[in-house]
Amino acid sequence: MYFNDVFVGYYVAIVFIGFIIGKICAWCNIRIPDKKKIFSKDFFVESKKGIKFNYIYMIITAILYCGLLYKYGINKSFFENLDLIKYMILVPFLLLIFGIDLEHRIIPNRLTLLLFEIGLIITFLYGISNINMAKNYILGMIVGAGIFFVILILGKLFYQKESMGYGDVKLIGALGLYFGYMGIIEISIASFVIGALVSVVILIIRNLVLKNKDEYVAFGPFIVISALLCIFLPTHTILDLFLNFCRWISYKI
Fold first, then answer.
1. In a domain, 45, yes or no
2. For 106-140, how does the pLDDT look when each residue is reduced to its tens digit (9 = 90+)?
3. Mean pLDDT, to the nearest integer, of 21-36?
4. Which structural domain, as residue segments, surrounds residue 170?
5. Does a structural domain hold residue 143?
6. Residue 52 lies in a domain
7. Which residues are paired to 6 by β-bridges?
8. How far apart are CA 156 and CA 161, in angstroms?
9. pTM for this predicted structure
10. Burial of 189 by CB count in 10 Å (0-12 exposed, 13-18 middle, 19+ buried)?
11. What is the pLDDT of residue 43?
């Protein structure tokens, strides 16, 4: 049996891999915020004691891996599978960043730095077969970090406070190595739109229901959601929707 020209056995294998990676992500979600070692005998010791790993990580990772396999398939050559490989590497990082930033309001440097280093390696591999693709990903890193850095500086100048954290700037720069300059523009647009809509709802709930005046909303989760949308949606979908919306607004005005 085949799904999208991929043998069903590969889906079974990818689900199994997803569960394993998800379990490791759940462990990292506990260790990284406390700046503890990831590769530790405590993993096996605490597993034997019956530690409650976050099964949400395991399930979501397996589902996303199946989605990646369905969309990108398995090709004959290594270079043709680079898209699938890089996104399988990227997805666990995105889930970790989402969870940690949402809970602790920080994007650990050890995650963004490793993401950046892996991105450079993948960019180099793309460059072996097509130098223009490598240039595109390098430009994506520059454009992504540049956009967010300018916004951060403008926020400090006009509002006398950080409109976003430096972790967001480093994250979007690292993601540029995976999505290229057009992809990172789409992610930037989507993250600001989603962030604005969700932040308004959160602030209303905090002020009216919870009576909580804490106005800070972590921006990392919006970047993660936008990156996942960019992975699974057809190319330029987000940008086309945004441009069509702008045309509609200008027509109404």
1. no
2. 999 999 999 999 999 999 999 998 899 999 999 99
3. 86
4. 108-252
5. yes
6. no
7. 3
8. 5
9. 0.89
10. middle
11. 64
Angle, CA of 117, 122 and 124, to the nearest 5°: 95
Q: In this structure, is residue 190 part of a structural domain?
A: yes
How far, in Å, CA of 236 to CA of 116, rounded? 24
How many distinct structural domains can be found in the chain? 1
**pLDDT tens by residue, 36-74:** 777 777 666 655 544 555 788 999 999 999 999 999 988
Helix 82-104 with 8-31: angle, nearest 10 deg: 30
Distance CA 37, CA 34 (A): 9
Mean pLDDT of 100-108: 90
